[in-house]
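Treating backbone geometry as a discrete language has practical consequences that deserve illustration. The sequence in question and its structure tokens are set out directly beneath this paragraph.
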Amino acid sequence: MGSVKKYSVVLLLVLSLFLFSGNVVVVEGAWCMTPSGKFAGACFRNANCLNVCATEGFPSGTCDSFRCMCRRVC
């Protein structure tokens, strides 16, 4: 009877390792978005928007409803 109890405890420990060893998502903060002041025309490519936002001092930029929106962590 003692060996069954020991194996149950070992099995429980192994299962808990699988449960708690999953991917951990780190949340740094929400994104604050500001319309680009330098982007001209409709925004179709995120790469173009990103480049313009970089010249404005933002780490990221993306097209949103045909506008270039510069992003930074709040």
Q: What stands out?
A: Residues 13-19 have pLDDT under 50 and may be disordered. Strands lie at 31-35, 60-64, 67-73. The first strand starts at residue 31 and ends at 35.
